[in-house]
Amino acid sequence: MPALQDSINTVRVAAEAADRVKATDIVAFDVADLLGITDIMMIAGASNERQVLAVAEEIEKDLYLKCGGRQPRSREGLTEGQWVLLDYGDFVIHIMHEESREFYGLERLWKDCESIDLQLAHPEHSLSDAVRDNEPMTAID
User: Fold this and answer.
1) Which UniProt keywords apply (predicted)?
2) CATH code that applies to domain 5-135
């Protein structure tokens, strides 16, 4: 069963917030059929620890203000600023320092899942590794 439209729309708000504070390579995958514990995984890159934290803060703020007071069930990594995880239940957001993102390669875990069209105004910030490597990806509207 694919991700619910409400979850997709909420993740788009998160992606817009990340894009606004210059997060890079913003991608989201429909993992509902693969995992069963969440519907969507979103990943956003940042060039340094300060930006990782700024992206996380902006996402939390927008989801609270624009999505009916949504707050994460849990937050991980705020102390280190290398990899922040925001768990909202139906979706999980990973904000990763570029080096950590390259090292862990989370996109590889979900390479067989459909990508979600985040409808960003700055699509150059949302190019996934697969797209840059000319691998086909399908999008969910």
Assistant:
1) Cytoplasm, Repressor, Translation regulation
2) 3.30.460.10
